[in-house]
Specification:
The chain is of the alpha/beta class. It has twelve helices and twelve strands. Helix 1 (26-33) packs across helix 2 (48-58) and helix 7 (184-200) crosses helix 8.
Amino acid sequence: MRPKTSSPRRAAPLIAVTAGEPAGIGPDLCVELARRRLPANFVVVADGELIAARARRLRVPLRIEAYSPSSAPSGRGRLLVQHVPLARRAAPGRLDPANSRYVLETLETALAGCRKGTFSALATGPVQKSVISEAGIPFTGHTEFLAERTGTRTVVMMLVGGGMRVALATTHLALKEVARALTRRSLESTLRVLRADLVRRFSIARPRIVVAGLNPHAGESGFLGTEESEVIAPVLAKLRREGFRLTGPLPADTLFNPARLRESDCVLAMYHDQGLPVLKYASFGAGVNVTLGLPIIRTSVDHGTALDLAGTGKADAGSFVEAIKLGAALAAAEHRRRRRRVA
């Protein structure tokens, strides 16, 4: 495939978009992006023929053009693609471990562009962790992969949607591993990164963070667990003395009430399924995953690869659209801050 190139200038941030697992709905969502009016310019980092084939399957007229710095923006029937070749042709809904390295190569390519300044932010489509692991590649998720590739010691996974921001003290761990992973040092590092990026990325001068307990009823004074008194409370007390605005540890079953949320800027949950079901109930299909602490801006969809929907035309691009919008907004804010510093 030899896509054409074209020319005018961009004013909006340029976002790198990775299509994710080639057998999933990521390519469908990229096709749909070309039909939306977005407040950002974007480049899809993927196999160009994969995107073209999915457009044909979905019966969506689409012109694929090779990305170059002088290319006109994507949109309305046109899609800029930075081509990364598949190892094997992908079929919707059928995982193939042979393409796992391709998935990671698209991430590497997009990340390199962000670090060089070619791209203002990275928005990632969903990947299938199981098939990457099946290919013999250790992989627990985008968050951990990007942290390792950028040499970032502490990153924080935060979802935005439904009028909430929910961050996680631990991410993709088996439940039986959570208590062991939750240490004073790890929790303090997480809270420092969370507060710093709420200030830096989200322009919240004095963030108010509500912190959940780990155990039912936040430990019930030690009868249902001691992590609250031995780990969480001492860290919160230390950081409050430094000026952090922290509430907790609070029982997670009563924390997510409208009155409490109105008085906070973010909730810190102790583990993945403590905080995310609430947010996803309020915003599924429009939530955005943000990785805090990285030297780049990274946003993502709030859902998985939906293999059963791939190639059917039933996939909803709402979360991907919101991820690009938020990435563009954060990139624009970063650009304004840099201009103020120079001035």
